[in-house]
Amino acid sequence: MKDIQIRPAVEADFEPMWLIFQELIASGDTYYFAADTSRDDCRAYWFGPGIVTQVAVLNNNERLLGMYKLIANQRDRGAHVANASFMVSPAAQGIGIGKMLGRHCLAAARELGYLAMQFNYVVSSNVAAVLLWSKLGFSIIGTLPRAYRHQQLGFVDVYVMYQLLDDPNNWPE
User: Torsions phi, psi of 169, nearest 5?
Assistant: First the structure.
């Protein structure tokens, strides 16, 4: 693959992140955000407290291709389980950016001491995402019937997907 790096997001990345965010939510087929979600809401989503955000960039920051955020799925007694969200620019989809970001995120979660990762809201009709997460070791552990209002398909199911990041026998007491 071309010269693609994954690095921590910085404030200067926000504008291209905002453009990707807007383009993806406008389609109404993968994210729960309304099309009129504000810049401030987007900034808080990607750069809020406790969030680790990484970006994939082409040719040493020439172009931002996608991003992910990593955060504890719950606080306190649930904080050992990570949660993550991903967005890949429509112009960069289909070339493995999502897979690169997914692998990087799983490694980062392990490095940060998370013991498992849970995706709370994977839209079932987003076949590419469901297949990618399955290939990267996630299992569908629950289905939320008709929990997403898809712009073209109407109400569709949402999956909860989960993966252990370490053998529970190795977890701390």
Answer: -65, -20
User: How confident is the model over 45-100, as pLDDT tens digits?
Assistant: 999 999 999 999 998 778 999 999 999 999 999 999 999 999 999 999 889 999 99
CB 25 within 8 A of CB 35: yes
Give just the sign of the alpha carbon dihedral 30, 98, 89, 95: negative
Exposure b/e, 56-65, CB count within 10 A at least 16 = b: bbbeeeeebb
Count of CB atoms within 10 A of residue 47's CB?
16
Out of 3.40.630.30, 3.40.50.970, 1.10.274.10, 3.65.10.10, the CATH code matching 4-170 is 3.40.630.30
Other beta carbons within 10 angstroms of residue 17's beta carbon come to: 22
Domain boundaries, the chain: 4-170
| pLDDT at residue 173, rounded to an integer | 83
d(CA 156, CA 92): 26
Q: What are phi and psi of 63, to 5 degrees?
A: -150, 135
What type of residue is 17? M
